[in-house]
Amino acid sequence: MPAAYLKKLKLSVNQEVVAQHAGKGTAFASEGDVVSAFIARLFIRHLPNTSNQTIVVMNAFGMRSALAGDCLPSDRAYVGNAVTGVLAILSAKEILTNPLSYTAWAVRKAIIDQGSREQLEARVAVQKAMGFPLYGDGGMQMVTVSNWSKAKFFEADFSAAVIQNGANSNARPGRLGKPSFVMGDTISKGLSVRNASNVVGRDDADGDVWLGGVLRKGLWTKIAEALETDSY
């Protein structure tokens, strides 16, 4: 997603979110919320606008801040994942016919409602009691988004390994030794990762946001057409 395009999209979405909530200053959509909504709409383009099929937009959610203190003390290192998923449950019709701000706010609301310490503990209690539960219905479709922006992959500094400059500083789009492309891929055996997307992060050269996903063959072509015509 080009930086200028995403900036414009985020501004438009937030103007709509604020207007929809009577100017409440607490109502907003982060860049991640906007990207998630954008991905969800693109990934279900194969469905008709009239479809009432349940779509669960699941965003990977880091629990470290909620568990800080007693579970994850600041003076100790926890090396491992501390993540769960927050779920925005909508219909395909809602996602495809409403403005993008509708889905972006649903994602933000899911984070607000499900990201508290109390809610996290309640979900873990359910998992302990009955295994890993699925929320939704038997005919639902899931869109999974994992945003890696905080990992700052594009800020990795390999300048110490540069033997010879390939271009002068004026011609170089990014800083010396910084990645120009990071490929995120998923290898899975026995578990379908279809409709799963990874947001790799913002590149150093132009500030563009890179994302990918696992989709049915042919759907990326439709997505490319939608982006070309701005008909997402």
TrEMBL record:
> Part of which pathway?
Secondary metabolite biosynthesis
Checking Pfam families in the record gives:
Transferase (PF02458)
Key word Acyltransferase present in the record? yes
Signal peptide start and end residues: none
Q: Which domain of life is it from?
A: Eukaryota
Molecular functions (GO terms):
acyltransferase activity
Keyword field: Acyltransferase, Transferase
| Protein family membership | Belongs to the plant acyltransferase family.
Name of this chain's protein = LysR family regulatory protein
